[in-house]
């Protein structure tokens, strides 16, 4: 899908430090540079593995890389924290006294509230919390963002522009971030289970695994694309596939009798509860 929401040079006034440029960080760097939002020379990527940084510098010409987190944040107007939660304490302690008090901190750390980030960086640091998902790696992410107490409209704009470079962005209240984690943050796992099940179903009916896997994944991708591009309610799209007395309605009836919807609603509720519990640990 094309994302026309980002225009070139929208981040030209920023210097962005990406602290912990692994899967998510690298995809955000790629999104910003490919969308021409920012000159690559104004993006600084860090991680501990120098060889991985060299590979990234080769991939994105002009990107600056360093293993020195402090040097990176010193000149940053925006700091993207894309480390794992277990590295948070160490990295925040290392950089907190070296970034500008006005620098925007955008965190993708699952379960870490804006309040905790503000306390960690100093109470008036502008922070935005984001919950992306792994399809961001192919520029089709679904990301929710929520502002901290000291983040204004311009901070939210910067965060939105960065994540729109790798997919769709919604803004939500922080209290709903656990629900976002249960739905879109964890959602790819449910969809992969569905693709796997559909593939097995095809194999059971005699299709080769390769053919079944291609048909299953493309069916999910195409159905999602049709829903997004037409904006039609999923129930209407489903009705359009279900011929009276036909095959699809027979399968729909079977899925309903097994409680597909309730199972999914309960699964998301369980993931939401788990996210909440993790925050309290
Ligand atoms: N993956 C998802 O579905 C998803 C969804 C939503 C949110 N998130 C959040 O995104 C964050 C990153 O996830 P990810 O999948 O991108 O993880 P990842 O690929 O492991 O990336 C984290 C990177 O941080 C680097 N790192 C570790 N310690 C560091 C340090 N002291 N200084 C600088 N860099 C350091 C690691 O590289 P080195 O070992 O080379 O240092 C690694 O490349 C997590 O907090 C996760 O909660 C992920």
Short description:
The protein has helices spanning 23-34, 50-59, 69-74, 88-95, 114-121, 153-164, 177-185, 187-204, 209-230, 234-241, 247-257, 260-280; strands at residues 16-19, 43-46, 64-66, 78-81, 104-107, 127-131, 141-147, 167-171. With 281 residues, it is α/β, with parallel strands linked by helices. α2 links the parallel β2 (43-46) and β3 (64-66).
Q: What structural class do you assign from the helix and strand content? A: alpha/beta
Number of domains: 2
Q: Mind telling me which CATH architecture of the largest domain this is? A: 3-Layer(aba) Sandwich
Task: State the shape.
Answer: elongated
In CATH terms, what is the fold-level topology of the largest domain?
A: Rossmann fold
The end-to-end distance, rounded to whole angstroms, is 38 Å
Radius of gyration: 21 Å
Widest beta sheet: strand line-up: 3-2-1-4-5-6-7-8
**What is the number of beta strands?**
8
| Number of helical regions | 12
What is the H-and-E element order?
EHEHEHEHEHEEHEHHHHHH
Largest sheet composition: 8 strands, mixed
Task: Bin the strand percentage.
Answer: 5-15%
CATH class of the largest domain: Alpha Beta
Give average pLDDT, whole number. 95
The CATH superfamily of the largest domain turns out to be NAD(P)-binding Rossmann-like Domain
Low-confidence stretches: none
Name the bound molecules: NADP nicotinamide-adenine-dinucleotide phosphate
What is the helix fraction of residues, given as a range? 40-55%
